[in-house]
Amino acid sequence: MSCHPSRREFLQQIAAAGVLMCLGRSAALGRQQGEGGGTVGLGLGVDFTWRAVPVSRLAELRDDLARVDRTGQVSDNEIFRGYLAGFAFSPPEDFPGARSVIVLAVRDDPLEIVFQHRGVRHVVPVPPGYSYLRTPQGAVEEAVRRDVLGDPEARIEPVKLPVKLLAARCGLARYGRNNITFVDGMGSYHALRGFYTDRSFPAGEWHPARLLRQCKGCDVCIRRCPTGCIAQDRFVIDVGRCVTLYNERSEPIPDWVDPAAHNALVGCLRCQAPCPVNLEHAGRTERLAEIDEEETAMLLEGGKDARLKASVEEKLARFGLVGDLAHLGRNLRLVLEASPPAGGDGARAPEHPAGDRSPARS
Ligand code: B12
Ligand code: SF4
Ligand code: SF4
Fold it and tell me: Across the chain, how many H-helices and E-strands are there?
């Protein structure tokens, strides 16, 4: 997500480690294409589905946002407005030949990390979108050139667009009531990416954003959001109340956030994991690392010990927030305080493994 400034740093690290080369060698498995969209299986768990949209459509995205803003539904929160100010609805000036945007949904499953703390193993979730395990930008770019454009040298440039809206308008995705997008075969467990290209594609779908049909009669995400961001009487979430807005950053988390709201090492899974549409993907959580007692203590104390810091960074090298150990430590403390371990073997299981099948409120 473009609201994660530390990821660029991480990408450079994994590129240097040769991860991109490995992905490149295993690419082009399971390719199935149309002229203006398709699905690509890259192996190693990197899969994406894509559509092409002419750049002439992009002004409509700006108009959509402005129209919704005029309804008063879009939060005035300063951090959030800062993210929105980063959008650009036309290609970069030095790419005047750009004709289309290729928008991709890249499969990206949830992860979990085990932290050993005071003799107990705590399994802490990491939501999709925070790891480059399956979505390294370089590998995705390489795949777009090779498998979408058929030219390893083709010029592509990343977009600065509201990619959920773009994906929903071109039929790649549908919005859920939780305001995130869902894609066939991936649920909401995907990352969205977009690239300008000088290619033109045959005209494809283009329509107002559509709602997931399963949302009709369901209110699981509304009930499970720990801070009441999602309301019955308005579609756009109250972003200023979203836990993610605060725990992705190092500034202090506002006092009004309920201590019980914290449920992931970063971000929040409460409007995704219990969603019935994600049920079929619930078993795909991968365990990323085991952080031992000493390392956990170092994290909780603010990440100062150089030796332990290096060892945690090495363990989390495949996880995209290695540069942010101080605020990850803060988040970890909040998660541990929010849900103390239950008996059994002492492992604190993720609180959202199998979705929520409880009936919707009428
Ligand atoms: C800013 C931002 C945030 C902010 C604000 C989130 C928000 N909802 O706007 C914060 C930090 C809080 C955040 C949180 C999260 N984010 Co974020 N975020 C972004 C970012 C940079 C822009 C999002 C945006 O455009 N917001 C503006 C609002 C107004 O747009 P919107 O939500 O699409 O709203 C539209 C609809 O509501 C529609 N609409 C209005 N009425 C109606 C009615 C109907 C019926 C319909 C269908 C539509 C509709 O109109 C609105 C405007 O067009 C994108 C990356 C990007 N470049 O796009 C990632 C992105 C959206 N985030 C992402 C993720 C994963 C998350 C989290 C799930 C992280 C987590 N917790 O684990 C949460 C989800 C919170 C939530 N429920 O929305 C992914 C989403 C992937 C997906 N499956 O959808 C993105 C796309 C990053 C990526 N590249 O993959 N994020
Ligand atoms: S939990 Fe229910 S209402 Fe929310 S996004 Fe999923 S299907 Fe839609
Ligand atoms: S990410 Fe968490 S806090 Fe934000 S809307 Fe979803 S459930 Fe609510």
Answer: 11, 11
Atom 6 of ligand 3, nearest CA residue: 271
Of 13, 14, 40, 17, the residue nearest 27 (C-alpha): 40
Mutate to test the pocket of ligand 1, among 3, 73, 182, 222 (most ligand atoms within 8 A of CB): 3
Q: Which ligand lies nearest the alpha carbon of 179?
A: 1
**Residues listed for the chain:** 362
Walk along the chain (362 residues) and give the pLDDT tens digit of each residue.
434 433 333 333 323 222 222 222 223 333 445 567 776 654 444 589 999 999 999 999 999 999 999 999 999 999 999 999 999 999 999 999 999 999 999 998 888 999 999 999 999 999 998 877 667 778 889 989 998 999 999 999 999 999 999 999 999 999 999 999 999 989 999 999 999 999 999 999 999 999 999 999 999 999 999 999 999 999 999 999 999 999 999 899 999 999 999 999 999 999 999 999 999 887 788 888 899 999 999 999 987 889 998 898 888 876 665 557 778 899 999 999 997 655 444 444 444 333 333 322 22
How many other C-beta atoms can be found within 10 angstroms of the C-beta atom of residue 193? 21
Pocket test of ligand 2: the residue of 164, 174, 189, 220 to mutate, having most ligand atoms within 8 Å of its CB, is: 220
C-beta separation of 327 from 250 below 8 A: yes
